[in-house]
Design a protein that fits this description.
Layout lengths: L11 E5 L2 E9 L2 E5 L7 E2 L7 E6 L7 E5 L4 E4 L7 E2 L3
Antiparallel strand pairs: 1-2, 2-3, 3-4, 5-6, 6-7, 7-8
Length: 88
């Protein structure tokens, strides 16, 4: 994927407070990431689907929380490479 997918509904947007070049967008299909201020995008393959909110831990931007439309909350402790369901 090069650019942000067209004709997709964006549910969430966040940027890494420690590195604003890293942009995260929540889509129905998962989270897409740009590491170059939005020029190129890649789907994070292990990311949760239907993400409606993305939030960075205030003291550790390597920890990212994602809230899905069905009420599930996910956490990534490695800047979005892997995700784990936080609430059951």
């Amino acid at each position: 994927m090069d650019g942000l997918p067209t004709r997709k509904e964006v549910f969430a947007f966040a940027y890494d407070p420690k590195d604003p070049k890293h942009l995260f967008v929540g889509l129905r299909d998962g989270i897409v990431l740009s590491q170059d201020e939005g020029r190129q995008w890649a789907l994070l393959k292990q990311s949760p689907k239907g993400v409606r909110a993305i939030l960075f831990h205030p003291k550790d931007s390597g920890k990212i929380f994602a809230g899905a439309g069905d009420g599930k909350i996910f956490i990534s402790k490695d800047r979005g490479r892997t995700w784990r369901l936080q609430n059951r």
